[in-house]
C-alpha cells in the first residue's frame, strides 16, 4: 500500500490554495460590493472588506507555495469563519441540492484547519 503523507499534504495545500484563489481573483476583478454590503449591516467599518484580499489572494499563494502555510491557513480559516457568519449567520438552511447553504465555505474552513494541524510537508518552500 502506498502511503506518502507529504504527497497528501501537498495535494491538500494545492487544492485549498488554488480553489480559494479563484474566489480572490473574482473579487479583485469584479470588486467587493457584496462583501462591503454585508459588512455594512454590522457595526464594523466597511474598509474591513479589504481583508478579503489578504484571506483570498495572499494567504492562498502562501499556502500553495508552502511558505508559512500554517499561518496563512489560519488567516484563511478566520476569513472563512467571518464569511460564514456574514453571509449565512450559521443558519441551518439548506441549498437547493440538500446540503447546508454554507457547506463550501465550511469545507474551505475545515481544509484550512487541516493545513494548520498537518503543516506543509516536505514539498514546501520552507520545509524542514
The shape is: globular
What is the multimeric organization of the chains shown?
Answer: single chain
State the order of secondary-structure elements, H for helix, E for strand.
HHHHH
Helical percentage: 55-70%
- Major beta sheet summary: none
Beta percentage is under 5%
Count of helices? 5
Model regions low in confidence, pLDDT < 50 over at least 5 residues: none
What does this structure look like?
The protein has 128 residues and is mainly α. The protein has one domain (5-118). Helix content is 66%, strand content 0%. It is built from five helices and no strands. The chain has helices at 5-30, 33-40, 51-65, 69-88, 103-118. The longest helix has 26 residues, at 5-30. It starts with a helix and ends in a 10-residue tail after the last helix. The model has no long low-confidence stretch (mean pLDDT 93).
Outline the secondary-structure elements:
Blueprint: H1 5-30, H2 33-40, H3 51-65, H4 69-88, H5 103-118
Helix pairs in contact: 1-3, 1-5, 3-4, 4-5
Protein name: DoxX family protein
Subcellular location: Cell membrane
Organism: Sulfurimonas marina
Amino acid at each position: 500500500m502506498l502511503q506518502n503523507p507529504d504527497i497528501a499534504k501537498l495535494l491538500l495545500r494545492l487544492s485549498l490554495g488554488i480553489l480559494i484563489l479563484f474566489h480572490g481573483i473574482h473579487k479583485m476583478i469584479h470588486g467587493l460590493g457584496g462583501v462591503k454590503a454585508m459588512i455594512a449591516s454590522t457595526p464594523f467599518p466597511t474598509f474591513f472588506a479589504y481583508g478579503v484580499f489578504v484571506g483570498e489572494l495572499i494567504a492562498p499563494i502562501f499556502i500553495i507555495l508552502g511558505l508559512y502555510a500554517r499561518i496563512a491557513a489560519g488567516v484563511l480559516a478566520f476569513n472563512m469563519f467571518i464569511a460564514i457568519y456574514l453571509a449565512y449567520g450559521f443558519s441551518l438552511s439548506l441549498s437547493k441540492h440538500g446540503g447546508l447553504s454554507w457547506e463550501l465555505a465550511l469545507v474551505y474552513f475545515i481544509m484550512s484547519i487541516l493545513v494548520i494541524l498537518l503543516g506543509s510537508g516536505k514539498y514546501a518552500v520552507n520545509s524542514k
